């Protein structure tokens, strides 16, 4: 039996870029849900993470520190807007534009922080799987409201499921196929 013919390089590049895109989306989900086990699965063991004042160093140590970093973050909501990905064999780089909303508990109340920024990413495919080797956060602008304007009791959302950090988020009980980090859907 002969080996199957190799994929057209254009198709292989498209598949690699899609895998990296799913990795980026999985990062946003893991951050927003405070799912640090999922977050850990997205980085290679020797990866680096630069997260401004919060952390600079080995990504696994960053993930170990996340519970303390996230403890006062009531809402995290990361939105990817533009992805620029360049491939070089089993290495790639990405400039990922994001809008990240944070509702942060402060002195018995909460404040809102909206950040427009980018991730500068380096990825490697090892054993057929793309993961981060280096991620650096870049802030382009920030808007801070010292008092939150979020109203999760407004009549417009009455009866809606309300997102929360952690396993209590309704996505964990609603979805059956995603499996959130388990089974064949690696990044979901």
TrEMBL record:
On the tree of life, the source organism's domain of life is: Bacteria
- Which Gene3D superfamilies is this protein grouped with? 3.10.450.50
Q: Supply the SUPFAM superfamilies for this chain.
A: NTF2-like (SSF54427)
| Domain SnoaL-like, first and last residues per copy | 13-135
| InterPro entries in UniProt | NTF2-like_dom_sf (IPR032710), SnoaL-like (IPR037401)
Protein name per the record: Nuclear transport factor 2 family protein
């Amino acid at each position: 039996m002969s080996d199957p013919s190799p994929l057209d390089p254009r198709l292989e590049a498209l598949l690699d870029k899609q895998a990296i895109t799913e990795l980026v989306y999985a990062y946003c989900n893991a951050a927003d849900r405070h799912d640090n086990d999922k977050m850990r699965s997205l980085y290679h063991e020797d990866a680096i993470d630069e997260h401004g004042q919060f952390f600079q160093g080995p990504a696994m140590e960053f993930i170990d520190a996340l519970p303390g970093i996230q403890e006062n973050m009531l809402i995290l909501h990361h939105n990817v807007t533009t992805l620029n990905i360049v491939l070089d064999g089993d290495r790639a780089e990405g400039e990922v534009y994001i809008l990240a909303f944070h509702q942060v508990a402060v002195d018995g109340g909460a404040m809102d922080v909206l950040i427009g920024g980018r991730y500068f990413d380096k990825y490697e495919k090892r054993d057929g799987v793309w993961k981060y080797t280096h991620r650096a956060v870049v802030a382009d602008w920030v808007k801070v409201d010292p008092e939150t304007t979020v109203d999760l009791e407004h009549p417009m959302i009455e009866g809606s499921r309300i997102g929360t950090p952690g396993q209590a988020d309704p996505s964990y009980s609603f979805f059956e196929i995603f499996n959130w980090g388990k089974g064949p859907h690696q990044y979901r």
